[in-house]
Amino acid sequence: MRKLGSILIIIGVVFIGVFVYQYYDHWKAQDESLTEAQESVDKGKNKVKLTPDDFKVNANEAFAILEIPKLGKSLPVVEGTDPDSLKKGVGHLSESVLPGQGEQIVFSGHRDTVFREFGKIEIGDQYIVNTPYGSYTYEIRDTEIVSANDTTVIREMGEEVLVVTTCYPFRYIGDAPDRFITYAYPVGDK
């Protein structure tokens, strides 16, 4: 019986160690991406005025900062929604446009890392996206919960809309069955 107890303790310590390492690894990657994104935004401010159409971004590059005032968060936005990109921060779906281009912009992130407190988000809250070519403010006007397999939220909308997605339910352990979607519309730009 003592051997079983010792084995269970060792297994528990290993699981805790793996969790701590993964959490630290995500935190470190996001911190490095936030620095990279801030440098990109600052570099854009010091250059000749860029337009959204002039700006080009490479895969896995941190290029913008998503501010969520309600949560007091400033998060790096990374090009791509593959696992490597999402490890570094909020992913920008490459097939969608960039802020200021007048169509659907899609950002995604993990509920247990960048969007840890996303359950507090409400209609009327704002997102601010700082890019090398300007800052864009969006107000959440609608939310919905869809199946994890539902890709109909990715579509042409005929107007600029920032769509932010994460897994749902927020406290679910494992691969969540649904997605929480917010639809935010421009309230002005600088």
TrEMBL record:
The chain crosses the membrane at residues 7-24. The active site is at H110 (proton donor/acceptor), C167 (acyl-thioester intermediate). This is Class D sortase. The gene is yhcS. Pfam families: Sortase. SUPFAM superfamilies: Sortase. It comes from the Bacteria. Keywords: Hydrolase, Membrane, Transmembrane, Transmembrane helix. The keyword Transmembrane helix applies. GO terms for molecular function: hydrolase activity. Gene3D superfamilies: Sortase.
